[in-house]
């Protein structure tokens, strides 16, 4: 084969090959050395056969550290929370926030239930208002079609709950959008509601005379909201050199900033998602679905704002609360198949998707508390840099005990840079 042929990305039948055969082709394409190929071929604690069936064209796996957030008390129950993240400080932030509200009871959570929404798009309807009413008239038939799609879900207490029809103005004229509201219980529910929407669409077209196109769930799962709240006393949140009242007021002001300014809100919510996504990933749930839902919900009032609220209680304590769409499941997909997700769910000890959703909301709130506290006091870099320094030390080639030694020097000097780490490593190694 010439080098030009090797460089072609047109590889017919790639999906039919084994992971090792694919890896050999990729190695030839990208000029990977033996050590890199061996590294990719080592799939760690994920069975290669399982990996090969979870997604397409598998050549390897990517390990992300799982850390445990301690100190979490949620609805009176002490819990250990597994978090999968590559970002330093995220797990520590949750531990710290939880420690500071543990003695006053920790987190209280609730939810709006486990309802998912599927959308059916109808276009070319000459009389959209008439069409809307015609669809609503068929509620009983719609319920029957939906419930027939998933008798097991119905047996478990879930299934069709309601139908709503909206008329929206679009660049292509009015569209009639049918929402199927379905209780998916312990499933995330995408498969269930997508099947229902696809099954029902031809009937909607027939009843109205329009044409149906998209039939898919909405990730703006605003019938599946998870809520959490917690209170921090000023005494508990006093920081080195700062009275608790000043810390409290700084956090409230940081929230007010995020609520008013989308530039700040994006970063504020990113911090919340640091916590949320880490638990969603650790439990094998769909991180993108959750992120899409949360960010869309943050814009529900017509402008992008904060997912949390921070206020001062009549007693002068700091009260934080969060409300977010949280479409997570315990059954189906990677949640059930991935052994690490299963182990993490065991550590969490949750038995319903609703409980998992509420725990995740509490983690998001804890994360936000720590980020805002750091920002309103010492600044984020001090804490970040201590952990970041270890990454930099490793990047400079430090191993074993060298990592902590080099990192300590970087932090002491206030220069967390690879070149400084390399120089320090040279010194240590003589
Ligand atoms: C960094 O990953 C997250 C923060 O930027 C969040 C925030 O600014 O609120 C610290």
Automatic annotation (TrEMBL):
CDD domains, per database record: HMG-CoA_reductase_classII (cd00644)
Membrane-traversing stretches: none
Question: What Enzyme Commission number(s) appear in the record?
Answer: 1.1.1.88
Say if the entry is tagged with keyword Repeat: no
Q: Which superkingdom heads the taxonomic lineage of this protein's source?
A: Bacteria
Which SUPFAM superfamilies is this protein grouped with?
Answer: NAD-binding domain of HMG-CoA reductase (SSF55035), Substrate-binding domain of HMG-CoA reductase (SSF56542)
Query: What metabolic or biological pathway is this protein involved in?
Result: Metabolic intermediate metabolism; (R)-mevalonate degradation; (S)-3-hydroxy-3-methylglutaryl-CoA from (R)-mevalonate: step 1/1
Keywords from UniProt, A to Z, are: NAD, Oxidoreductase
> What reaction gets catalysed by this protein?
(R)-mevalonate + 2 NAD(+) + CoA = (3S)-3-hydroxy-3-methylglutaryl-CoA + 2 NADH + 2 H(+)
First-level EC class: oxidoreductase
InterPro entries xref list: HMG_CoA_Rdtase (IPR002202), HMG_CoA_Rdtase_bac-typ (IPR004553), HMG_CoA_Rdtase_cat_sf (IPR023074), HMG_CoA_Rdtase_CS (IPR023076), HMG_CoA_Rdtase_NAD(P)-bd_sf (IPR009023), HMG_CoA_Rdtase_sub-bd_dom_sf (IPR009029)
Q: Which GO terms describe its molecular function?
A: hydroxymethylglutaryl-CoA reductase (NADH) activity
Q: Pfam families, alphabetically?
A: HMG-CoA_red
The family classification in the record reads: Belongs to the HMG-CoA reductase family.
Q: What is this protein called?
A: 3-hydroxy-3-methylglutaryl coenzyme A reductase
Organismal lineage: Bacteria, Pseudomonadati, Pseudomonadota, Alphaproteobacteria, Rhodospirillales
């Amino acid at each position: 084969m010439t080098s030009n042929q090797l460089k072609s990305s047109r590889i017919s039948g790639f999906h039919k090959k084994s992971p090792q055969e694919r890896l050999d082709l990729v190695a030839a394409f990208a000029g990977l050395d033996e050590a890199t190929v061996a590294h990719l071929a080592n799939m760690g604690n994920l069975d290669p056969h399982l990996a090969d069936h979870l997604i397409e064209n598998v050549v390897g796996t990517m390990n992300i550290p799982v850390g445990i957030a301690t100190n979490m008390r949620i609805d009176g129950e002490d819990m250990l929370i597994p978090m999968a993240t590559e970002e330093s400080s995220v797990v520590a932030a949750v531990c710290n926030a939880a420690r500071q509200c543990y003695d006053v009871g920790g987190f209280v959570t609730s939810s709006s239930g486990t309802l998912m929404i599927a959308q059916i798009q109808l276009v070319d309807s000459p009389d959209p208002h008439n069409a809307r009413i015609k669809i609503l008239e068929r509620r009983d038939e719609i319920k029957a079609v939906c419930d027939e799609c998933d008798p097991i879900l119905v047996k478990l207490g879930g299934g069709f709950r309601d139908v709503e029809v909206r008329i929206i103005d679009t660049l292509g004229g009015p569209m009639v959008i049918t929402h199927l509201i379905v209780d998916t219980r312990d499933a995330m529910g995408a498969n269930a509601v997508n099947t229902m929407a696809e099954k029902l669409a031809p009937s909607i077209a027939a009843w109205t005379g329009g044409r149906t196109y998209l039939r898919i769930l909405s990730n703006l799962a605003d019938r599946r909201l998870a809520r959490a709240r917690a209170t921090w006393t000023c005494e508990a949140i006093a920081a080195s050199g700062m009275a608790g009242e000043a810390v409290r007021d700084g956090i409230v002001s940081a929230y007010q900033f995020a609520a008013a300014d989308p530039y700040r809100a994006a970063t504020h919510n990113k911090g919340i998602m640091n916590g949320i996504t880490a638990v969603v990933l650790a439990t094998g749930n769909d991180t993108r679905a959750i992120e899409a839902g949360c960010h869309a919900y943050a814009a529900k009032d017509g402008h992008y704002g904060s997912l949390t609220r921070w206020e001062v209680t009549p007693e002068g304590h700091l009260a934080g609360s969060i409300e977010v769409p949280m479409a997570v499941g315990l059954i189906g997909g990677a949640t059930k198949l991935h052994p690490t997700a299963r182990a993490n769910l065991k550590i969490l000890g949750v038995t319903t998707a609703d409980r998992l959703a509420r725990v995740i909301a509490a983690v998001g709130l804890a994360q936000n508390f720590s980020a805002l506290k750091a920002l309103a006091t010492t600044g984020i870099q001090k804490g970040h840099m201590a952990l970041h320094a270890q990454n930099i030390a490793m990047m400079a080639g430090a191993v074993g005990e060298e990592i902590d030694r080099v990192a300590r020097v970087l932090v002491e000097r206030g220069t967390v840079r690879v070149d400084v780490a390399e120089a320090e490593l040279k010194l240590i190694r003589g």
